[in-house]
Design a protein that fits this description.
The protein is an alpha+beta fold. The chain is built from twelve helices and 17 strands. The strands form four sheets. A six-stranded antiparallel sheet has the order 13-12-11-10-9-17, sandwiched between helices.
Length: about 475
């Protein structure tokens, strides 16, 4: 258990004036008592009255001391326009070592099962507002695991990670939060991955972005939660401007965020169910600026495979720097191969390459021969909340298992990125692509519309080992 708000002992100031007044009062009381005692002692019952008075004085002093000690720890009431400020609340945050539950033998552990919730609510930026909300959560048996604050022009957005009793519903949690002064409350189920603190998570996303330019869209999604990211290039395939480019500092419009793409164009992030805060906007802009400063970059590793006939090929990541080699491969491909890949006029095929090789739209794998000639491309393309896979193999290198090898690697990249499914758009006559999708050993859905076949693979299980190169040899090399 980690205490994030430690109580500090307060030393009360010593006032010498109070001591002087008490000494004068004691002196006066002694004089008065002596005078009365001399008058009483001369009477017949003088000694008895003197003893009784002493007992009464001791009892009164004892009661006064007890009363003063009992009420001296209460903070003085502060007038806030007719209201009394609540007593200060100390919030204790517990971070479990593993799992999402609390050990039953921990002190103060809640009884029964618990559930993790992410909750965001807006409260007034006034003293005591957060304390009132924490008091309500404590009364409900809710444990605060992490807390982030997002200052706004009016109010503050507080984002909590909570461990709550399993019987506490999201509606009850939102209702009690509203009663404590929260508004625009949003709740969502969380899991053990959310237990990582925000600075650590942001540093991890920055590291992934620094190693691979294609990670920026994925990093923005993980940073901002469930959102949709669109990358709009500055020019269309025909060279026509596609709209006004976002300024360098970016634009924040409630649920829409527009950021300048360092590679040209605009990154548009949308989250209709929850407005972005200035803090989130600053974090997203910092990731984009990091990407711009580092420039083009790819992971350095590459795999060298030996085909069954003995030829060696290299599988590596590709980007827009491979554009000349990709265009040369297009020139060597037949019109049928290009038609099966792009489903459109063959003469426009080269226009798609700059878009496909851009890391903003996904990840690309390239296959090159020992002489360095590019003979195949595999693309994993981000399409909103969905992911598309596409393959093209040069005619002379088809039916050697290269397409299946690329597809298995692309599916592995999709799983690594957290995608739930991938789909391929092809023609029903493209038996090679259909066979490669079936070789994934994943649940497949088929949909045919006007001669176009869409095959969707649900990534519910890890793909089977690639059967494409049964007699080949794979070794990893570094550039």
């Amino acid at each position: 258990m980690t205490d994030v708000t430690s109580s500090k002992s307060v030393r009360r100031p010593h006032h010498w004036r109070h001591d002087l007044i008490e000494l004068a009062a004691l002196f006066t009381a002694v004089v008065v008592a002596d005078t009365i005692a001399k008058s009483i002692v001369k009477g017949p019952d003088g000694p008895y009255l003197l003893v009784f008075s002493a007992v009464a004085l001791v009892a009164t002093a004892t009661f006064h001391t007890w009363w003063a000690r009992r009420h001296s720890h209460a903070p003085p009431a502060v007038d806030t326009g007719g209201r009394t400020a609540p007593a200060p609340v100390t919030v204790t945050v517990t971070v479990p070592a593993t799992g999402t539950g609390t050990a039953p033998d921990e002190p103060g552990a809640p009884s029964g099962e618990t559930t993790l919730w992410r909750m965001r609510t807006t409260v007034q930026d006034t003293p005591g507002s957060l304390a009132a909300l924490c008091t309500v959560l404590a009364r409900l048996g809710v444990d605060i695991l992490t807390l982030q604050t997002h200052p706004l022009a009016r109010g503050t957005v507080d984002e909590f990670l909570l461990r709550a009793p399993v019987e506490l519903s999201a509606q009850d949690l939102a209702r009690e939060t509203a009663a404590a002064g929260g508004r625009d409350t949003w709740t969502e189920r969380a899991d053990a991955h959310d237990l990582v603190d925000t600075p650590t998570r942001v540093l991890g996303l920055a590291t992934r972005t620094a190693l691979d330019a294609a990670e920026l869209p994925l990093a923005l999604r993980q940073l901002l939660g469930r959102c949709t990211l669109h990358s709009v290039p500055a020019l269309s395939l025909t060279g026509r401007p596609l709209g006004e480019q976002a300024p360098v500092e970016g634009v924040l419009e409630e649920t829409v965020m527009r950021l300048r793409d360092p590679h040209g164009g605009t990154l548009i992030v949308e989250r209709p169910y929850l407005p972005f805060t200035p803090t989130e906007f600053a974090r997203a802009r910092a990731l984009v600026e990091l990407d711009a400063r580092l420039g083009p970059r790819l992971p350095r590793s590459r795999d060298v495979l030996t085909l069954p006939e003995g030829n060696e090929i290299t599988v590596r990541r590709a980007d827009q720097r491979d554009l000349p080699a990709a265009r040369a491969m297009h020139d060597r491909c037949s019109a049928r191969t290009l038609g099966l890949r792009y489903h459109g006029p063959v003469g426009d095929a080269d226009r798609y390459l700059d878009h496909l090789l851009s890391p903003r739209f996904g990840r690309t794998l390239a296959v090159q021969t020992a002489s360095g000639r590019l003979v195949a491309l595999g693309h994993l393309l981000w399409d909103g909340d969905e992911t598309e896979v596409a393959l093209m193999v040069e005619d002379d290198w088809q039916r050697r298992g290269i397409g299946s090898e690329l597809l298995h690697r692309l599916v592995a990249l999709a799983e690594e990125a957290g995608c739930a499914s991938v789909y391929a758009v092809t023609q029903a006559s493209n038996t090679g692509m259909v066979a490669a999708m079936r070789a994934l050993s994943l649940p497949l859905d088929y949909q045919i519309e006007e001669g176009t076949l869409v095959i969707t693979a649900r990534l519910t299980a890890a793909p089977a080992p690639s059967p494409s190169l049964p007699h080949g040899e794979v070794r990893r090399a570094e550039r």
